[in-house]
Specification:
Oligomer: single chain
Order of helices and strands: HEEEH
Structural class: alpha+beta
Helix content: 40-55%
Number of strands: 3
Largest sheet: 3 strands, antiparallel
Strand order of the largest sheet: 1-2-3
Number of helices: 2
Length: about 120
């Protein structure tokens, strides 16, 4: 026996697995559950945007899917299809941009500058 050691004494070792204790694990699990709920809430959101002064209106959901498209008849000109196409693209892109902004803002509260790609 080494100096200062008593019979029956066992030297305590640090827990394996990177030193996470049970409280930290529970906190991480709670954070993961919150993130999953926030993601589910985001997917339920819808953004409606317009282009051309409201002649084209689109709705985009949190999954970045186009869920509604409304075109006022006065903008439909068979001789100028390009303008209509441009208006639709502008409205859809703005909807997607707004959903992305909401997503980054919401998920950013969890990642807090961790630099996690895709969040």
């Amino acid at each position: 026996m080494g100096k200062g050691m008593k019979a029956g004494k066992v030297k305590k070792q640090k827990p394996a697995g990177g030193g996470f204790n049970m409280q930290q694990l529970q906190q991480m699990q709670a954070l993961q559950a919150q993130m999953e709920q926030a993601q589910a809430d985001l997917e339920e959101k819808e953004i409606t945007t317009t282009a051309g002064g409201g002649v084209v209106e689109v709705t985009v959901n949190g999954k970045k899917e186009l869920t509604n498209l409304t075109i006022k008849p006065e903008v439909v000109d068979p001789d100028d299809v390009e303008t209509l196409q441009d208006l639709i693209m502008a409205a859809v892109n703005e909807g997607i941009r707004q959903i992305e902004e909401i997503s980054q803002s919401t998920m950013g509260q969890f990642t807090g500058g961790l630099g996690i790609p895709g969040l």
